[in-house]
Design goal:
329 residues, mainly alpha, 12 helices, globular
Length: 329
């Protein structure tokens, strides 16, 4: 039996298969949980829903993990330790993404408002149990489990067949649609792309996990604060000011994330392409390539076909929720 470090690396097709299995598990569990929904008037409504979300995260992660273990594969991008200041940069990146893309996200929300879209009510963080469970699920569990799927499996598979920018965008789009929350689509896309780019540059999942956790932590803090006037209404009144501001802040944030990524790559002395090549063609080159070929049952485009199926499934559910909230709620 091969040692963990000598196991065949996750191929591009494997990464897309893990993504598909995770989505299938997530949608199945969501359907099951919907049959046992708790009324919003129930005093334990928030706590029960956070428990459901925790179970959903475990299922989302467990199914592909079992499949990987049975096939004897290993992730290309894992939890490799970083220099201490890169952990801080990862957390700081959350504020950059939020500050840079919140206006673009608000424009999308304003568009939905004009269309007559009914926004989902956020889960209330009220009571010690709800706050504790909410932080556990959203700040601790979700960042680790979701980043393992979308950056550890999907992105590290895509990067073997696609260029860096398309791979980052595809993993970010998959991450965004997975949440099936139309009003958050734009921000989730930006967050997913930033997490993917930093994970690739640092050759570690830690930047993605910390960025994700810090972003969710900020969202928890905002949810505990009194609601103010939606930014979209003010933006619609002053489009001449807010349109260029939105573009400027988004471009500035993207530039800063790029700078942080280059700094991480330089300080960690990582050569992304060289690392991927070494891991796939090291001492066990013949065995690795044999395992890699076994997953390409549909040819060189296996990963694209499987990715398309999974993304199409998410997009269909996303569209269903969008139409439901636009016309029937």
């Amino acid at each position: 039996m091969l040692k963990a470090k000598d196991r065949p690396a996750l191929s591009a097709a494997d990464g897309s298969i893990v993504y598909l299995l995770a989505i299938a598990a997530s949608l199945t569990l969501q359907f099951i949980f919907s049959l046992f929904g708790v009324s919003a008037s129930d005093p334990n409504y928030a706590a029960v829903n956070f428990v459901f979300m925790g179970c959903l995260q475990l299922g989302f992660f467990a199914v592909p993990l079992v499949c990987l273990s049975r096939r004897g594969r290993r992730l290309i991008i894992g939890f490799r330790p970083l220099k201490w200041y890169n952990y801080l940069l990862s957390v700081a990146a959350a504020g950059i993404v939020l500050g840079g893309f919140i206006l673009l996200a608000s424009w999308f929300e304003a568009l939905l408002t004009v269309m007559g879209y009914t926004f989902a009510d956020p889960l209330p963080f009220s009571g010690a149990a709800a706050i504790t469970l909410g932080i556990l699920v959203t700040v601790c569990m979700a960042p680790v489990f979701e980043e393992l799927i979308f950056r550890g499996a999907l992105l590290s598979g895509l990067i073997q067949r696609e260029r860096v920018l398309p791979a980052v965008l595809l993993s970010g789009l998959a991450f965004s649609l997975m949440h099936i929350n139309p009003e958050q689509t734009v921000y989730q896309l930006a967050l997913g792309c930033a997490a993917g780019y930093l994970a690739l540059k640092a050759d570690s999942l830690w930047p993605a996990v910390l960025l994700h956790a810090a972003s969710n932590g900020i969202a928890v803090v905002f949810s505990l604060m009194p609601e103010g006037e939606p930014a979209g209404s003010l933006m619609l009144q002053n489009p001449g000011l807010f349109i260029p501001l939105s573009v400027f802040f988004a471009a500035a944030a993207a530039g800063l994330i790029h700078v942080i990524g280059r700094a991480m790559a330089g300080s960690e002395k990582r050569d992304l392409k060289g690392e991927l090549t070494r891991r796939y063609t090291g001492d066990n080159a013949e065995a690795l390539l044999k395992f890699r070929d076994q997953t390409n049952v549909m040819g060189q485009n296996t990963h694209r076909i499987v990715y398309g199926i999974a993304l199409g499934l998410c997009a269909a559910v996303w569209l269903f929720v969008f139409i439901l909230r636009l016309f029937f709620i």
